[in-house]
Amino acid sequence: MASSGTANALESKTPLRVVIVEDDLAARNMLVATLQADADYAVVAEFAEGRAAVSAIPHLAPDMVLVDLGLPDISGIDVIRQLKTTHPGCDVLVVTTFGDERTITSALEAGADGYLLKGSPLEEMRRDIHSLRAGGSPLSPMVARQLLNRLQTKPADDRAVDADNGRLTRREHEILVMITKGFSYAETSQICGIAAATVHSHLKSIYRKLEVHSKTEAVYEARRRSLI
């Protein structure tokens, strides 16, 4: 039998606040149902248009946003960019039908933390959402393959990093190693004694220096260069 202290701790666990930005009603309902089936998440708002979402999100303070890219008013990429500017600690997961390299790259450059293609089994989506909150960067297999192909076919001269501008600082190297080992943003910030927003800032600097756009690419490129 659980002690009263343990019971209170379980009861006080606050579900993660999730916002869904998806114009297709059937797809939106599917995402809502998937999240509502898990006590760890609470859908606090749904939007069919990007501008309404961008306007309301500052007041909703979500922990996670699931966003489609093909919205009727503005691009989901613009939603991601604005959200990451105002709420860098919020996780953003793309769920879309667009799987071309240019769109994938643009979304990741804007700040997306994961990229899933519609049609994935619900169980896989649940697993990927949990992975995102644990500090992972879930990618659909086809998306991951495109990113790897992009890295592997990029000319060596283009991958070269200037000795002065491309060298990781000690803190950046420390954060990259911790992310590689699977530590979440929250765990990394706690261990390093810095804010989660600062972890995101360091990661952006790492991406720029390694010429990549996601944690998956950063880990791959760092290993290729024997930095970790």
Instruction: Name the helix and strand elements from N-terminus to C-terminus, one letter apiece.
Output: HEHEHEHEHEHHHHHHH
CATH topology of the largest domain: Rossmann fold
Low-confidence parts lasting 5 or more residues at pLDDT below 50? Answer: 1-12, 156-165
Number of separate strands? 5
CATH architecture of the largest domain: 3-Layer(aba) Sandwich
* Cα-atom radius of gyration: 18 Å
Distance between the termini: 46 Å
Q: What level of helicity do the residues show?
A: 40-55%
Largest sheet: 5 strands, parallel
Q: What is the CATH superfamily of the largest domain?
A: Response regulator
Q: Report the structural category.
A: alpha/beta
Integer average pLDDT:
82
- CATH class category name of the largest domain: Alpha Beta
The fraction of residues in strands falls at 5-15%
Q: How many structural domains does the protein architecture include?
A: 2
* Rough outline: globular
Number of helices: 12
